[in-house]
Amino acid sequence: MQRIQQDLNRFRRIVRGQIKKNLRKYMSQGEMIGRQGKRAVSIPLPQIDLPRFRYGPKQSGGVGQGDGEVGDAIGKGDPQEGSGEAGKDPGQHIIEVDITLEELAEILGEELELPNIEPKGQKNIVAEKAKYSGIRRVGPDSLRHFKRTYKEALRRQVSSGLYDPKNPVIIPIRDDIRYRSWTETPLPQSNAIIIYMMDVSGSMGNEQKELVRHTAFWIETWLRSQYKQIEICYIVHDAAAKEVDKETFYHLREGGGTRISSAYNLCNKIIEERYPPAEWNIYPFHFSDGDNWGNGDTQICTKLLANEIIPKSNLFCYGQVRSLYGSGNFFHDLKNNFENEDGLAMYEITKRDEILDAIKEFLGRGR
Question: What's this model's pTM, rounded to 2 decimal places?
Answer without folding.
Answer: 0.63
